[in-house]
Design brief:
24% strand; Trypsin Inhibitor V, Chain A; single chain
Length: 279
């Protein structure tokens, strides 16, 4: 299964039926003698988080015109059931131990999120032989482990110094997962630590600030906020955490917006906010 885009590699994967020699049947079990692309790896990974159902990959979700209207949408398409839901759940449970204490991918789990993942360190094929000095370091994972919403593949080509996926690729995965989950409106399950000595000052400051200094929206939006009088930075800070997409026109402070404040919206909604310099 591929995206069918120009220049895309098809990979090389042989089933046991086509592994003729005994050595091929041994090496294929630990990843040599086969080659798959990152998108193919992501597809296989995502199927475990999707009750064992393999999905056709999509590069484009929708096409939107200059007016913000959706011209065409591309819907998810199931390919087939590759493993049973029970097997998929068992694999997720096993892969979650990789990111827990004692696992090889402890650096991959962002604070407040669970991750089901797998590290990988692969020798590169150079001149028909597997190199002993050039590697691919990988970490693949699903987050959150209990009910995945993201499948992420991180591949570092020929890392310098450390070569292991759990050391090189896992920290990159952690940063991508943490920021993307927040962008999608899924926030870490941790309690914020507040210094009691500063609590009074924080309350006092919150009472004094005006509308333009309101805190950013802390989760998916259900109604359109009122951004009147806010700066571009304040608006973008709120929208970044809420997942709402927005077109910005002008500079200064917000003077108008579409949709209007209070209008019901979804995380897929697109808004237009116009700014003008303060007089």
């Amino acid at each position: 299964m591929r995206l069918c885009f120009p220049g895309e590699s098809c990979g090389l994967y042989r089933t046991l039926k086509f592994c003729r020699s005994p050595i091929d049947r041994v090496t294929v079990n630990f990843g040599q003698g086969v080659s798959i692309t990152a998108i193919q790896l992501a597809m296989a990974l995502a199927s475990l988080g999707n009750e064992g159902v393999l999905m056709k990959p999509l590069l484009v979700k929708e096409i939107i015109n200059q007016q913000g209207q959706i011209v065409k949408q591309f819907k998810p398409e199931a390919v087939r059931q590759v493993v049973s839901p029970a097997t998929a759940h068992k694999m997720l449970a096993i892969m979650q131990t990789v990111t827990e204490s004692g696992g090889t991918g402890t650096e991959a789990a962002p604070a407040g999120y669970s991750v089901a993942g797998k590290t990988g360190t692969a020798q590169k094929l150079i001149g028909g032989r597997y190199s002993h000095s050039k590697f691919n370091a990988l970490f693949i994972g699903l987050v959150p482990a209990e009910k995945p919403v993201l499948a992420i593949v991180v591949l570092i080509d020929e890392p310098k110094g450390a070569i292991y996926g759990g050391v090189v690729a896992a920290p990159v995965f952690r940063e991508i997962a943490a920021r993307t989950m927040r962008f999608l409106g899924y926030y870490p399950k941790i309690e914020p630590v507040v210094n009691p000595l500063l609590a009074t000052k924080i309350v006092e400051c919150n009472l004094e600030v005006g509308k333009a200094d309101t805190e950013p929206v802390n989760g998916p939006l259900t109604v359109m906020p009122d951004f009147q009088g806010q700066t571009i930075r304040q608006v973008l800070k709120s929208l970044h955490r809420s997942g709402l997409r927005c077109h910005i026109e002008g500079s200064g402070v917000a003077v108008s917006q579409q949709p209007e404040p209070g209008v019901p919206i979804t995380p897929e909604s697109i808004c237009l906010i116009r700014f003008k310099p303060e007089s």
